[in-house]
Specification:
The protein is an alpha+beta fold and 149 residues long. It has 2 domains: 74 residues, Roll (Structural Genomics Hypothetical 15.5 Kd Protein In mrcA-pckA Intergenic Region, Chain A); 43 residues. Strands 2-5-3-4 form a 4-stranded antiparallel sheet, with no helix packed on it. Helix 1 packs across helix 2. The termini are far apart.
């Protein structure tokens, strides 16, 4: 096993932690370590508060930066060799058609013509409806069928 280079863990103090002692905040915010372990790290000068060595008794303000410079630790060696466990084989090919959402120009022109005719027919029908007796009809399917035929 070989030692790595350690790691610097950086945290920014939030508004809820303002006024707390650093040692108390570390113990409640990072419970992977006990308050005694944090005290030992503070005594070993592993923590800084705004780039100044911390004692743990400092009162925190929102926005301050706490950095724990974790010392190097033993890391297991990584095997530098490998073997092929499984190799995929080609079982087929396919093609994908991607639609842009646009319609051809001739289809668009035909649709515009039908919409214009339909708008004119609706205007005439509304004028006639003012003098005619009306019965309820469901026309949605017929209109859409005409437009998109």
């Amino acid at each position: 096993m070989a030692l790595n280079r350690g790691y610097a863990y950086r945290s920014q103090v939030g508004p809820a932690a303002a006024g707390q002692r650093l040692i108390d905040w570390l113990g409640t915010s990072y419970r992977h370590s006990s308050p005694a372990q944090w005290a030992a790290r503070l005594a070993g000068a592993e923590l800084t508060l705004d780039d100044t060595p911390a004692s743990g008794e400092e009162r925190l303000r929102a926005g301050q930066v706490v950095i724990w410079q974790r010392p190097p630790w033993d890391e297991p060696d990584v095997p530098l060799t490998f073997e092929v466990v499984h190799e995929d084989e080609v079982v087929g090919y396919w093609s994908t058609t991607k639609f842009s959402g646009s319609i051809p120009a001739d289809r668009k022109a035909a649709l515009k013509t039908r919409v214009a005719k339909l708008r004119q027919a609706i205007k005439v029908a509304r004028e006639d409806a003012n003098t005619a007796r009306v019965s309820e009809r469901k026309m949605g399917d017929a209109i859409l069928g005409y437009l998109f035929a």
